[in-house]
Amino acid sequence: MAGAQNRTSSFKIVLLGEGCVGKTSLVLRYVEDKFNDKHYSTLQASFLTKKLNINGSRVSLAIWDTAGQERFHALGPIYYRDSQGAILVYDITDEDSFEKVKMWVKELRKMLGNAVQLCIVGNKIDKEKERHVAAAAAEEYAKSVGAKHYHSSAKLNKGVEELFVDLSKRMLQKKLSSDESGSDRAVGGRGSVVIADDSAAPATQKKGGCC
Amino acid sequence: MIQTLLSPDQQNVTQRLELAKLANLCSERIVNFCELQAALPLKNGMVESPAKPTSPISPQSPLSTPETTRRPAHFPTSLQSPSLERRSSKSPSVDMSDGAVLAAVDPIKYAKILNQRMVEHLKKRLEKMECSPQRRANMTQELFRKISENNEKAKLMQEQQRRRQQQLKSYADKRTRALNLKDPAKKKEHEEWLASILIHDDKFKWPLSLKSQLKHENKLDVSAANDFCTTILRSTTHPMSDIVKTCHSKVKTVTDPLHEKYSTLVSDAVLVPYLYSEPLLSDEAVAKLEVLADSSPEENTFSTVEENCNVSVDEIKLAKYMTDKEISKLINDDKAGDTQGDAQQEVDAQQEVDAQQEVAVSSFDDEMDYLFDSEDDEVLNDKVVPDDVTSPVVPGKLNNLAAADELASKIRNELDEVEGQSAAFKKQLSTVTGYLHETMHCLSRLFRLAYEPLNSEEGYDVINTAVQECLFSDIGDQLQILYRLANLKKERKMAEIMTSFIEKDISHMQVNEKWYLDTRGECYNHLVSHLRRITAIHSPLEKALSCTVRLHAGVVETAEAFYAAKHKQEPMGADDLLPIICYIVVKSQIPQIISQCNIMADFIPPEYMMEQEGYCLSTVQTAVEYLLTL
């Protein structure tokens, strides 16, 4: 059991938002930029993993992109179940996309409760002049639903890294506090079985001699 | 006694002769006695055994060792491992001739066999050989001594084994405690299993020697580890293989009767094109079937049609099933019995062809399009409709029409009836999945407890792969039928939807045009064929890895290669990927994709659900659910 804290914490982050708000660019920007080599998997931009270090704790993120089209909305739960974090992206120039975010927030809170850390992200701040969603209103809304609000520009690579790091910190904190409060953790997961007594098996006796 | 009788004091010839007879009699009796003793369980033998040699082999024996006792093997001094090919998929079997192994399993039994062999040998020798009564007596006495010796050794060895087992049991007890299993019954069960594994390995040695090869430079050799797990699970002696067998027999008691009863109906009827949807086949559709029957009475014609039209084998199978065999069967009611067999054979033969051929999954070409468009209101291409479709149907064919209709409604009724029992099937399914889950977890824990090199993250992957491979390989088909029965309603719906998409292309799936890749989606055809293979893979993890993950990677790679050729980069996010996956799923024409998804969702360990396996499964599940809403 000792050493459990040193193990990597894995988190699932689901990326939600209407088509064209820049979800995919956001995540690609994050994964591409941190290191120079390409970090995306064979699935390219739809499923990405990222390993990072938060205050000495190893964190592994699995970032799930979802389809933003209206016709797939009802099927969202297939994607977001069991996720610890959700990034809800809207386009600051498109009010509709912010309305969609509100809808997602409601649904996630209903389905996942407070276990999920919500991030509401106003993307495309490079188009500040065309802004249609007031920053203050968005901030206020986020606060009212226990989410955190961020601004980003995938194009200019602004606020992207901060968003993911901050979310990771929040998820880690949540995890530690729920671990402390003694919530059950599955025994016998992917990691190793922790053997309390590690003494080796009794040495095999030498056969032979009398036989 | 013999010694006394043979005292050199006896000089008289007559006396000698009598003595010889007596000696013969004695030796015969001793042989008989030995025989009896050899056959008896040890305890009895030991109690009555007059001779109890203290040293295992007595070199000081005054008598030369007769050949009789030289030949049959002594007790083995060490246990050799059965020769084992590391890569062989065949399980290591215990060779009865391998004394070491048998002695390890049951020393008493081995002693018995050895003793019997010796007695028989001596008997034969005595019959053939002419030798002095003295020599005879010596030989029998020696035999007697050897038998006792063997029995004694066996007893010793058994005692040693007992002590060793006790030691291993308490060790197993200690290790199992680390699992923190709350249920005491479960804990006890694990303890017993672990103990029996340790005892088994202690006896047979080969698992231990294989185990020692698992790590190279402190790193797990994944391929060796996989072979190791598979060898154990497929072995004939290992306790873990017994756990697999027990699970199989439990599962099969549920699935076998269902498989026997329904597999033909489900696999032959719920496929694409699906002909049993409500309402009854329209007259037009039946007329078109009729044309098909008319235009292709011979099998050869079909293969030509297949080549020309690039029709999927499944489609032909159904058309043929309906027209050539079933219709004639229905027309000639009195011959029904015979033809049904034929029809079945035909279907079976066709299924074999299925397996061999790369199934062409592209839609019907124009020439065939009109045949199955019962629900479609698309305008048919005039040029390909043969004139005789519009011409009046010849009277003899009317029977065929009616027969086809009747058959369709008969099958539909059967399907309705089976569908009505879905609640019962679901219950059975949950029983079966329960068995399988329990076995999977138990095997995984035992592997990690019993073999330390596997107790790591890589080891966990290896164990899961091997356990699933062995657990599902023998029951995959049966399990699939049970899933199909439980999901029959959805699969019928899916079959209808897939049928309606036979003639449609990627543009009907609202895929962004930039992903048509110039060919209206045909560049994804190889992935469609790839997805179809999912039904032939039994291990759920393998289904996920080599089918769904591969499918997604394939889409991305195809698109990437296309744009790379144009020196462009077009990253594909979920917005683009999901509609393409929908297109591939609908074109795969396997309604059982629903069951396949459920099997994967039920058996892929939760840790994989966060990884790409989970993501790809979720995408296919979403695609399936979306298609069902169309």
TrEMBL record, chain A:
CDD domains: Rab21. It comes from Bugula neritina. It is found in: Endomembrane system. It comes from the Eukaryota. One of its GO terms (molecular function) is GTPase activity. SUPFAM superfamilies: P-loop containing nucleoside triphosphate hydrolases (SSF52540). Belongs to the small GTPase superfamily. Rab family. It is a lipid-anchor. Keywords: GTP-binding, Lipoprotein, Membrane, Nucleotide-binding, Prenylation, Protein transport, Transport. Pfam families: Ras. GO terms for cellular component: endomembrane system. This is Ras-related protein Rab-21. Signal peptide: none annotated. GO terms for biological process: protein transport; Rab protein signal transduction. Its main location: membrane.
TrEMBL record, chain B:
Residues 488-630 form the VPS9 domain. GO terms for cellular component: early endosome; late endosome; plasma membrane; transport vesicle; tubular endosome. Residues 342-354 have a biased composition (Low complexity). Residues 47-96, 333-354 are annotated as: Disordered. Residues 401-428 form a coiled coil. Keywords: Coiled coil. GO terms for molecular function: guanyl-nucleotide exchange factor activity; SNARE binding. The keyword Coiled coil applies. SUPFAM superfamilies: VPS9 domain. The keyword Coiled coil applies. Residues 55-67 have a biased composition (Polar residues). It comes from the Eukaryota. One of its GO terms (biological process) is early endosome to late endosome transport. This is VPS9D1. It comes from Bugula neritina (Brown bryozoan).
